[in-house]
Design a protein that fits this description.
InterPro entries: AMP-bd_C (IPR025110), AMP-bd_C_sf (IPR045851), AMP-binding_CS (IPR020845), AMP-dep_synth/lig_dom (IPR000873), ANL_N_sf (IPR042099). By secondary structure, this protein is α/β, with parallel strands linked by helices. It has 18 helices and 30 strands.
Length: 582
């Protein structure tokens, strides 16, 4: 399919152009929303309204919106009407406790239904929602709540006692603590369950304006101190359209996104985009477990599945035979985000699930998918795909003044023309850091990439992770992908180390597949394999074995940590570190 046809299809279906609010206004219910909201001048726009109430208004209230699976094997179903009512109750509770439009509510809990109700109820009430990982320690929670000037938090009693109580008084703005799992809240806290039960199901959706702050998302902290990216209600255009383009979301489809709402994917595509698109959203409270995941895909007849390279590599590590007993015939679209997806993994998806994984690229800052292997395109394994309709992306030579576009095949910084609706509006309290991301009319992503002659984008590495060796520029991703093609290698992290003659040399950290043991011979064999694939200048000089690599909670390998340790430098901000190296 060519871009012309995509544009035509878009026009025929009345899809919202990602960067054109006027066109988007026609495709959305901006005006109906405005009517519902008492005909505010200029119209109101509210993410929660688009995600829930709108479907009820259109007679789809009985459709299953959320099917939740508890760790203990229990499950709960919510229709669109159920969620509309539950979020109205939540919004009423916030109002009853004096919270007002623009106040900030944080969530700090596992993937329980209350988290989803809180997210959308908060937006419905016109408050700003900021989700945090429940596994964060007390300090990372406190810092993020300080940055975001939290007014309220929804959490569990045990998390509160262990991670909040000790510093709560140090954040005067934090007035309210709602606890989801108790009817007898400790002093200074409110039991959410009874409050919800007592609240009314009627709530007039807050008349938020398109530019009102809606979400604060903290970046993954892979390259340094996490930033608080601010998103507005208008982002919902992008959530809706990108979900349709890049994930093929359609009303009634059974969709599973494995990301935790503690980071942006789990909110944009784990809550908002699917519900705005009218799908049935599956949520699993448990973490990755091979048989549980395969069982869920089969039993629930999942059609569309959005997951991440780190999970795919875990499945690959378990081998194809582990998937054999399962029937995945209902699956029709698989997508991946978060880290570069090794070509090996794309092909593996096809072999095991009958469909390849569609890689797509975006960031906390972009709020939604920007570059993707769309369903209608030929996938080039290892490529991130092409920009979505309405998105202008380029690879830039940022050393030039003014900066200029690179030739096909030349590596440069991946950049976007600003203006799409889900673009961050600032980094909270870090205007200077935010301003630095723009130059000559471009938003600079901090990632390096190259574009081929067919217009596909290829990820090279983070600008910070680029290795310069004997005049070669080496992207860690290329080396890591070559390494995991070796049968023994499950996962690889690659860094550059200073070297007197070469400038830098490549060092690789690898974890092994079951059945392989670290040995000098294996090390030599892996280096030999890499040399053959990459050439001696690019192949790692040294390969070391690890059981696990250091990773963020969102599943990204923290190369900077490997490097800092190797060089004896300070480790920097490791608040998002989940698994350490071992
Ligand atoms: P920080 O900005 O705090 O260092 P982070 O960049 O890891 O953290 P996120 O916004 O969660 O925080 O991640 C976005 C980054 O993840 C992208 O800039 C890119 O480096 C990487 N990424 C996401 N998807 C892909 C993909 N499909 N291919 C390659 N890299 C990807
Ligand atoms: Mg980043």
């Amino acid at each position: 399919m060519t871009w012309d046809t995509i544009a035509k299809t878009r026009a025929e279906r009345g899809f919202a152009a990602l960067s054109d609010p006027d066109e988007a206004r026609q495709a959305f219910h901006w005006d109906q929303a405005a009517e519902m909201l008492d005909g505010l001048p200029g119209g109101g726009l509210n993410i929660a309204y688009e995600a829930l109430d709108r479907h009820v208004l259109h007679g789809d209230g009985d459709r299953l919106a959320l099917r939740w699976f508890g760790k203990d094997g229990s499950s709960l179903d919510y229709s669109y009407a159920d969620l509309t009512r539950a979020t109205a109750r939540f919004a009423n509770v916030l109002r009853d406790h004096g919270l007002e439009r623009g106040d900030r509510l944080y969530s700090l809990m596992g993937r329980k239904p209350e988290l989803y109700i809180a997210a959308l109820g908060t937006l419905k009430a016109g408050l700003v929602f900021s989700p945090l990982f429940s596994a964060f320690g007390p300090e990372p929670i406190r810092t993020r709540m300080e940055i975001g000037e939290a007014n309220a938090v929804v959490t569990t009693e045990s998390i509160y006692r262990r991670k909040i109580a000790q510093w709560r008084d140090a954040i005067p703005s934090l007035k309210l603590v709602f606890l989801t799992d108790t009817d007898n809240a400790p002093e200074g806290c409110i039991a959410l369950g009874p409050a919800l039960a007592a609240a009314s199901e009627d709530f007039e959706v807050a008349p938020t304006a398109p530019e009102d702050m809606a979400l604060i998302h903290f970046t993954s902290g892979t390259t340094g101190r996490p930033k608080g990216a601010v998103h507005v209600h208008q982002a919902v255009y992008a959530h809706a359209a990108t979900g349709r383009f890049a994930l093929n979301l359609r009303p009634g489809a059974i969709y599973w996104c494995t990301a935790d709402p503690g980071w942006v994917t789990g909110t944009s595509y784990g809550i908002i985009s699917p519900l705005v698109n009218g799908v049935t959203l599956l949520v699993d409270e448990a973490e990755f477990d091979l048989d549980r995941w395969y069982g869920l895909l089969q039993r629930e007849k999942v059609e569309i599945w959005y997951t991440a390279p780190t999970a795919i590599r875990m499945m690959m590590r378990a081998g194809k035979d582990a998937a054999k007993p399962y029937d995945f015939s209902q699956l029709r679209f698989l997508a991946s985000v978060g880290e570069p997806l090794n070509p090996e993994a794309v092909v593996w998806g096809k072999q095991v699930f009958g469909h390849p994984f569609h890689d797509n690229w975006w960031q906390t800052e972009t709020g939604g998918i920007m570059i993707a292997n769309l369903a209608a395109m030929d996938i080039k394994p290892g490529s991130m795909g092409k920009p979505l309709p309405g998105i202008i992306a380029a690879v830039l030579d940022t050393d030039a003044t003014p900066i200029r576009e690179c030739r096909p095949g030349q590596v440069g910084e991946l950049a976007l023309r600003p203006g799409w609706p889900s673009m961050m509006r600032t980094y909270l309290h870090e205007q200077a850091r935010y301003n630095k991301t723009f130059r000559d009319g471009w938003y600079l992503s901090g990632d390096l990439a190259m574009q081929d002659a067919d217009g596909y984008f290829w990820f090279v590495g983070r600008a910070d992770d680029l290795i310069k060796s004997s005049g070669h520029l080496i992207g860690p991703f290329e080396v890591e992908s070559a390494l995991i093609e070796h049968p023994a290698v499950a996962e690889a992290g690659v860094i550059g180390l200073p070297d007197e003659t070469a400038g830098e040399v490549v060092k690789a950290y690898v974890s092994l597949n079951p059945g392989y043991e670290p040995s000098e011979e294996l090390e030599r064999d892996i280096r030999g394999h890499a040399r053959k694939k990459l050439g001696p200048a690019v192949a790692p000089r040294e390969v070391v074995f690890r059981n696990t690599l250091p990773k963020t909670r969102s599943g990204k390998i923290m190369r900077r940590l490997l490097k800092a340790r190797e060089l004896g430098l300070p480790e920097g901000d490791i608040s998002t570190l989940e698994t350490d190296e071992s």
